[in-house]
């Protein structure tokens, strides 16, 4: 089983009509966050099928895909890792996958790559490893926008397990972040908290709404009752 087999499979699924749309959607133009990224037009449901089919691809071959300039190849590599982590039967195998992920974290370099891998690999690993969660705080202080996004999005797995403390602490760390993709991720995670515990989310909002980036606030309040959304929007627009 080789990376070349995966590439052949992806090439057979490629849709040139979708590539232009994907290049615009993921901001691949000069100076944009996805500058230089190449898309061949394969959508996520298809990529999941390929990842499942090649889930036992050796790490060396996964690494070849992960270092590809083709976006879909990198995403398949990460989906393979996520699939393998979820199916792992031992702590040793899980540790190996997480180490591989962290050793090659620079290749997790677009928002969908982060969002489809961080909760299912790093977040899943840290759910029962509280003593290792300082890693997320180091990532949250990184100069790299994708590492900061990994830090907050990985906590989605904690949220699903009713554990909100790290999400709130990291969101607070990122309040002064200048990147829109961090504002969106922070607001999204706060909204996820609110789905499970509205009072906890609103307590965070009451404490920080005056300094929250508008995009973060907008994402965070999306599911609140209209009267509350109006109140926060009115304050933000002052």
List its traits.
2 domains; mainly alpha; 238 residues; Leucine-rich Repeat Variant; 66% helix; 16 helices
Describe what this molecule looks like in 3D:
The chain is built from 16 helices and no strands. It folds into 2 domains: 1-105, Leucine-rich Repeat Variant (Alpha Horseshoe), CATH 1.25.10; 118-238, Leucine-rich Repeat Variant. It has helices at 3-13, 16-25, 44-53, 59-66, 71-87, 91-103, 111-115, 119-126, 134-140, 145-153, 156-160, 165-173, 180-196, 198-208, 214-220, 226-236. It is 66% helix and 0% strand. The longest helix is centred in the N-terminal third of the chain and has 17 residues, at 71-87. With 238 residues, it is mostly helical.
Number-wise, the strands total 0
CATH architecture of the largest domain: Alpha Horseshoe
Helix content: 55-70%
Within the CATH hierarchy, at the fold level, what is the topology of the largest domain?
Answer: Leucine-rich Repeat Variant
What composes the largest sheet? none
Low-confidence stretches: none
Average pLDDT over all residues: 94
What sequence of helices (H) and strands (E) makes up the elements?
HHHHHHHHHHHHHHHH
Strand content: under 5%
Which class of the largest domain in CATH terms? Mainly Alpha
Distance between the termini: 59 Å
How many distinct domains?
A: 2
Shape: globular
Query: Helix/strand/pairing class, anyone?
Result: mainly alpha
List the total number of helices: 16
Query: Taking Cα atoms only, what radius of gyration do you get, to the nearest Å?
Result: 19 Å
């Amino acid at each position: 089983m080789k990376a070349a087999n995966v590439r052949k499979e992806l090439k057979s699924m490629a849709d040139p009509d979708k590539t232009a749309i994907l290049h615009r959607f993921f901001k691949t133009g000069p100076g944009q966050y996805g500058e230089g990224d190449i898309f061949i037009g394969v959508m996520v449901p298809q990529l999941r099928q390929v990842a499942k089919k090649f889930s036992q691809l050796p790490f060396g071959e996964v690494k070849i895909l992960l270092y590809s300039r083709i976006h879909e190849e990198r995403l398949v590599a990460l989906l393979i890792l996520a699939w393998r982590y979820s199916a792992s039967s031992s702590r040793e195998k899980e540790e190996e996958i997480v180490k591989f992920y962290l050793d090659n974290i620079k290749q997790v370099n677009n928002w969908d790559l982060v969002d489809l891998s961080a909760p299912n690999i790093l977040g899943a690993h840290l759910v029962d490893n509280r003593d290792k969660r300082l890693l997320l705080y180091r990532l949250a202080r990184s100069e790299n926008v994708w590492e900061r996004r990994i830090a907050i999005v990985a906590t989605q797995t904690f949220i699903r397990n009713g554990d909100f403390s790290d999400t709130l602490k990291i969101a607070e760390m990122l309040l002064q972040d200048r990147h829109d993709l961090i504002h969106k991720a922070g607001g999204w995670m706060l909204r996820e908290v609110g789905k499970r515990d509205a009072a906890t989310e609103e307590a965070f909002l009451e404490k920080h709404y005056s300094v929250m980036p508008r995009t973060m606030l907008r994402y965070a309040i999306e599911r609140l009752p209209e009267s509350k959304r109006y109140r926060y929007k009115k304050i933000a627009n002052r």
